[in-house]
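= Protein in question =
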Amino acid sequence: MIPLDQAVVARLESHGERFEVLVDPDGATRIRQGEEIDIEEIVAADFIFSNAAHGERAPDEALMKAFQTTDFEPAALRIIRRGEIQLTAEQRRQRIAEKRNQVITFISRNAINPQTGFPHPPQRIELAMEEARVNIDPFKSVEEQVKETVKALRPLLPIRFEEIRIAVKIPADYAPRAYGEIQAAVTLEQNEWQSDGSW
């Protein structure tokens, strides 16, 4: 369980009733993205509330009607997956900034300007996003948002995603240091170390 002061409300309205669970916002996001997490690790209390702010627990009849169970775990998981998660203003701002940077980084690393054949710098992408008034959702995946962002940027920037295949041979003196850098930047299809230590 997490401390109460670190929890936010996950809320779902169903069958004319409101159901709330106190959760860790990061853990709730991981569950929404399909990760298997023990529910006990991300909740502040193992109760389903009708109003968490007042400490009012949801009646068993309402739980049965909405979730066909009175068990905490399946009901809480459904609330987290389908409901809305209330973030504090600071948490929301921080999440949006992180997602925005991830989207900008992904586009600048993987997209090119077809007129020049070079990638757009991150600053250009960021300015174009501001001009296109792209809104970042703190709960959507980066991949989904990249698609939406590129669609919004196309009228402003010539942009194309392109994959290329290259073969590189690195001398033995530089291979150990270069290996980690290259592996972090690209997807390796084939990997051959030579007998002289070159890669």
